[in-house]
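pinned: reference chain
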Amino acid sequence: QVQLVESGGGLVQAGGSLRLSCAASGRPFSNYVMGWFRQAPGKEREFVAAITQTGYSTNYADSVKGRFTISRDNAKNTVYLQMNSLKPEDTAVYYCAADSAITTRAMGWNYWGQGTQVTVSS
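pinned: its structure tokens
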């Protein structure tokens, strides 16, 4: 079992930046690939980004490539999502997830945080 707690969400104007954090506890953090998903009202949860256990490899949704950066600090048991050039369509609840392998399907991840709201105003 691993427990995940997100933080860093908030309200920002279009073009602004936010950095989300996800702190993990429980089993060794470095055992897990980590991912970020988001869910807007009335929409399905969608993949945003993921990172391998060592941080060597990352994967992004096309909609955020070049604007978002996922990173991790295994010494701090934390994964981050740096979000730049934010757009109103980025507005959603952002969730941190952990599992043993990367997939873009939300159903493929076993461990989830409670989510943090990101609102981008135009």
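why pinned: The chain is about 0% helix and 50% strand. The two ends are 40 Å apart (CA to CA).
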